[in-house]
Write a structure and sequence with these properties.
The complex is a heterodimer of chains A (111) and B (115). With 111 residues, chain A is mainly beta. Chain A has strands at 5-7, 10-14, 19-24, 31-37, 44-49, 55-58, 61-65, 71-76, 85-92, 100-101, 105-110. Chain A contains no helices and eleven strands. In chain A, a hairpin with a 2-residue loop joins strand 6 and strand 7. Chain B has 115 residues and is mainly beta. In chain B, 0% of the residues lie in helices and 54% in strands. Chain B is built from no helices and eleven strands. Chain B has strands at residues 5-7, 10-13, 19-24, 31-38, 42-50, 53-56, 65-71, 74-79, 88-95, 105-106, 110-114. The chains are: A mainly beta (111), B mainly beta (115). The interface between A and B is medium-sized, with 20 and 21 residues.
């Protein structure tokens, strides 16, 4: 079946350092969505990318969709404690109903 | 606006008991999804409804699991009989439209523990 590989599984950073998570597919994606799940919470939609090479920003968060639409990244600049949580990518192939979820990257701020 | 509402928030019960989880999707959303989340397996789609009709239940683990959507504003996920390996967080999510180019809105989840 279709899969989205997300790496790394965990990333430990000092507050103020940057954070990046990557999602990769062996086949072309229709779109990609990013979600954030706080500890003990539920996934919350952040953004959707649709176009090849698309870049979108939300304050300190930068989302990119690869030119070949086979990969995507989420970069957080100067992490804050409020950024702690697990970041998931989710995608579809063609216009079907099912989102295929990455395994998530857990952002941990070192004390 | 009210989001997706799930109940109960927590459920602790003994093995063999019947468990019923409830979900009220966002008004106007016509797609509803049940997910299960565990540390080992991550986020798994159990079943998807569109316009109250089950479209894909291939993620339902086995016959002990069943889901219904009798109307546009209510869905249930039932486990009978429950087993300890069913312990997980169960999320309901809804979206507008039949295709997954729409954001999914999740409820707070039901944290289920089967003893």
């Amino acid at each position: 079946g279709q899969q989205v590989m997300q790496i790394p599984q965990y990333q430990h950073v000092q507050e103020g350092e940057d954070f990046t998570t990557y999602c990769n597919s062996s086949t072309t994606l229709s779109n990609i969505q990013w979600y954030k799940q706080r500890p003990g919470g539920h996934p919350v939609f952040l953004i959707q990318l649709v176009k090849s090479g698309e870049v979108k920003k939300q304050k300190r968060l930068t989302f990119q969709f690869g030119e070949a639409k086979k990969n995507s990244s989420l970069h957080i600049t100067a992490t804050q404690t409020t950024d702690v949580g697990t970041y998931f990518c989710a995608s579809t192939w063609d216009s079907n109903y099912q989102l295929i979820w990455g395994a998530g990257t857990k952002l941990i701020i070192k004390p | 606006d009210a989001g997706v509402i799930q109940s109960p928030r927590h459920e602790v019960t003994e093995m063999g008991q019947e468990v019923t989880l409830r979900c009220k999707p966002i008004s106007g959303h016509n797609s509803l999804f049940w997910y299960r989340q565990t540390m080992m397996r991550g986020l798994e789609l159990l079943i998807y409804f569109n316009n109250n009709v089950p479209i894909d239940d291939s993620g339902m683990p086995e016959d002990r699991f069943s889901a219904k959507m009798p109307n546009a504003s209510f869905s249930t996920l039932k486990i009978q009989p429950s087993e300890p390996r069913d312990s997980a967080v169960y999320f309901c999510a809804s979206s507008f439209g039949a295709y997954s180019n729409q954001p999914q809105h999740f409820g707070d989840g039901t944290r289920l523990s089967i003893l």
